[in-house]
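User: quick one, sequence for these tokens?
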């Protein structure tokens, strides 16, 4: 008669560990798979909120009313509910040379681009827009507002993205 050893009993522990690892993998997969759409939705809401905030700031008088790059607290380009070309030029120069400062003033970490439905004339130059022009972006939000530029109704756009 042969004696039985304990060699065959170790498979039970291996099976238990494998089951725990497999179950943990399934739980992690479902946790991330189910929360992924919510993260995208949250990001879209944040971008939309910050884009509206930037658009509201730009289409205001700013603070102080006659702001410049040294004393600006709030960037705004309107005077008497019309786009003030001097303030528009200041905004352009500030975004051109100190884009990160404008992001801080707008209180955003996202990139932005401001444009009108026609080219803007700043210091004799025809410009399509102000800020970082979007190219190959994900999660791009477009905010549309109406204003007056050169005594004509104009559509203003603020693009914001990650």
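Assistant:
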């Amino acid at each position: 008669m042969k004696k039985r050893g304990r060699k065959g009993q170790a498979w039970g522990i291996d099976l238990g560990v494998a089951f725990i690892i497999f179950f943990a993998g399934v739980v992690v997969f479902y946790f991330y798979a189910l929360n992924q759409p919510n993260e995208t939705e949250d990001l879209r809401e944040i971008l939309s909120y910050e884009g509206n905030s930037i658009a509201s700031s730009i289409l205001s008088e700013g603070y102080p009313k006659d702001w410049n790059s040294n004393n600006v607290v709030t960037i705004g380009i309107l005077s008497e509910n019309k786009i003030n070309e001097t303030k528009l030029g200041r905004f352009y120069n500030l975004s051109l040379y100190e884009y990160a400062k404008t992001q801080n003033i707008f209180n955003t970490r996202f990139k932005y681009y401001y444009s009108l439905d026609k080219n803007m004339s700043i210091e004799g130059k025809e410009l399509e827009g102000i800020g970082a022009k979007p190219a190959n972006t994900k999660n791009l939000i477009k905010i549309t507002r109406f204003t007056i530029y050169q005594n004509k109704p104009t559509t203003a756009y603020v693009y914001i993205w990650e």
